[in-house]
Amino acid sequence: MASTTSINGKEIFDLLRDDIVAIEEQFGRDTVSNVAAITEIGEYLRAGGGKRIRPALLLLSAKLFNYKGDGAVKLASVVEIIHTATLVHDDIIDEAQTRRGRPAANTQWGNSMCVLAGDWLYMQAFKIAVHERNFRILDVLIELTQQMVEGELLQMEKLGKPISLQEHLDLIYRKTACLFSVCMRVGAILGGATDEEEKRLGQYGRQLGLAFQIVDDVLDLTASESVLGKPVASDLREGKATMSVIHALDHCTPVERSHIETILRDRAFNGVTHADILTILNRYASLDFASHEASRYAESARNAINMFPDSEIKRALLWAPEFVVAREK
């Protein structure tokens, strides 16, 4: 049997190829409405692509227990629809102009129409989930949606303000890691996992999601606009203090702190450039701190699934944290 470190991204894609194609087709069917605008917005969002890491995690979790039914594809489409709905609402709240290198949906259809399309996507996701007739899964998905909405509201309350590292971790759990965790739990529930197995896979998803968001936030500060598909340092421009920035605020001089706080408050680089901020972050190794934390959470994710016997699916799950930490976009 191959070692637990031998699988790679191509092999994971091979494992899931047919299912991912089925999810894309399911997503396309699930976002068709009698209202043409909803169908157009849904197709525009689906065509925008994305890593599809969340539905892939649900599939892998179910496959870990040799699940054979069609519920995994249906529910993987559900979680991707929920994720898409959050992106629609996020872009409206953040007044985003671009998403994945294309105009954000709200710039094409307007805020009012996109708010309602996002609401419709949420309701459609739950309508599909109800067909599985599994109250455990419905409970998990409802709790997820509440956590994500609470996370968005909490973030709005804290925009423009320095926040503590613990406050930041709570925010990124609600906004990102909670969905990763739920994907793993839903797959486990489908596969008939024990409570302990579901708990371990939920922990795996939580830690992986935290690593994913921390890396995302570092890339927002360091990658190019062409790679990101959106303006660099978007978080700072929106008044969001992410882990690197929080670390720098805790270690920098009063003058440097004033520079960072001014950007957060004004939500603009007035008198301070992006390069100036990178200089401060590098001076206090704040980017390295965040990257190290991401690696620590990724390792914690791997450790959470040590109890499972070696298999092709486990090797895929062990590789995912490596991919999350090493990615460049």
What is the name of the CATH class?
Mainly Alpha
> Any idea what the CATH superfamily is called?
Farnesyl Diphosphate Synthase
Task: Give the strand content.
Answer: under 5%
Biggest sheet overview: 2 strands, antiparallel
Distance between the termini: 33 Å
CATH architecture: Orthogonal Bundle
Low-confidence stretches: none
Helical coverage, percent range: over 70%
Shape: globular
Topology as a string of helices (H) and strands (E): HHHHEEHHHHHHHHHHHH
Question: Overall pLDDT, averaged?
Answer: 91
Query: What is the rounded Rg?
Result: 20 Å
| Assembly category | single chain
Question: What would the CATH topology be?
Answer: Farnesyl Diphosphate Synthase
Count of beta strands? 2
The number of distinct structural domains comes to 1
- Number of DSSP helical runs: 16
Please supply descriptive tags for the structure shown above.
329 residues, mainly alpha, Farnesyl Diphosphate Synthase, two-stranded antiparallel ribbon, 75% helix
